[in-house]
Amino acid sequence: MTQRLLVRDLAQLATPAGTAAPLRGSALGEVEMLEHAFVLCSGGTIETVGLMANLPALDDDVVELDARGLCAVPGLVDCHTHAAFGGDRVDEFSLRAGGASYEELHAAGGGILSTVGATRAAGEAGLRETVERHRSWMLRAGTTTFEAKSGYGLDRETELASLRAIRDAGGIPTWLGAHAVPSEFADADAYLDFALADVLPEAAELAEAADVFLERGAFDAVQARRYLEACRDAGLTLRLHGDQFTEAGAIPLAVELGARSVDHLEATREEGIGQLAASDVVGVLLPASALFLDRPMPPARALLDAGAAVALATDLNPGSAFCESLPLVCSLAATQLHLSPAEALAACTVNAAHVLGRAERIGRLAPGYRADLVLLDAPDWRYLAYHLGGPVVARTIVGGELA
Ligand code: NIG
Ligand code: FE
């Protein structure tokens, strides 16, 4: 007999409405809310959601969880992290606090390349341990599904070890094979010759998507196109880091190649907003990264109001966003990006699930979806965004089991 779990007496239950994905426009802000509710999970899937007043009589096979004083929202989905890295960048963080800029440190050989050194030195066992640790932090913050990118190995062995470590920790691996040009290569083209010939064939077996850092000092639009076209031909979904510091053609390229997402967008202006809004490409907003680097926030309201599909993610990484908390990202979305709590919730559940190609199974509290829930220690589900940096997550349930 399958074990069933009844989460009962919830103060509130909130879920993005409907079944469509990605949500955009006014649909992004439509939340279905039940007061005094229950969720019945069976075999890892949600069987029923309803009002306590309508709770049916249940057999003895049901384990009950008393959720008085708590609110349920769908398990959070982090669709953009760099959880596979060695070492830290706390020295660089301190230098930045004293006025050094992220781009200056990068140009001086620090930044991403210093993490590449530490990641290569960590070895596969070290990387596995680190990804596991980051996964446990995310889970405590209510993240029940996470994507993570390679991109700090930039050699064959460490890139593949990163992707395996992510996969084995239950993450969804993305090959960020074009993150920076490692120092043993003369230039970006020489590095891409190597990466596409020697790493892509096996990376494509391990990863679901490919990502590129299209930016001044990293890869330009011609190089990004070459990388992405090769990855698409190998069967990978396409994503881009674009418009973080400068507009260098990421949005038009993403639209032309049918990418799943373009992420960052802090530097996006009117024309890019219009192009993205008219496309199926999701704009992934990373306000923790803008905050951590003291950079301008992305033009979120303009994107939403133009009709773009947006998602929210942490960007967890050692340099630009040492942050695993989607509740904190929701607070930033409300206070800095001017999203309503309902828009923020949909952006880090349904829309993030869409970015990961899983919107039919995760991101909502409704029958047939995976039983991934976050129980908030709050009388109102909007505390998800309202409780700035507080311990808002009381319990996390993954696949019908208490985590
Ligand atoms: O998304 N911008 C490129 N990559 C990461 C940061 C990487 C790092 O600083 O280590 C990002 O911000
Ligand atoms: Fe990133």
Tell me what the structure shows.
With 403 residues, this protein is α/β, with parallel strands linked by helices. It is 36% helix and 23% strand. The protein contains 14 helices and 16 strands. The strands form two sheets. Strands 1, 2, 3, 4, 5, 14, 15 and 16 form an eight-stranded mixed β-sheet that branches. It has an eight-stranded parallel β-sheet with strand order 6-7-8-9-10-11-12-13. Helix 5 runs parallel beside helix 6. The longest helix has 30 residues. It is globular. The relative contact order is 0.17. Bound molecules: N-(iminomethyl)-L-glutamic acid (NIG) and fe (iii) ion. The site of fe (iii) ion has 4 residues, from loops.
Looking at this protein, list some descriptive labels.
16 strands, alpha/beta, 23% strand, 403 residues, binds N-(iminomethyl)-L-glutamic acid, eight-stranded mixed β-sheet, 14 helices, binds fe (iii) ion
In short:
The chain is 36% helix and 23% strand.
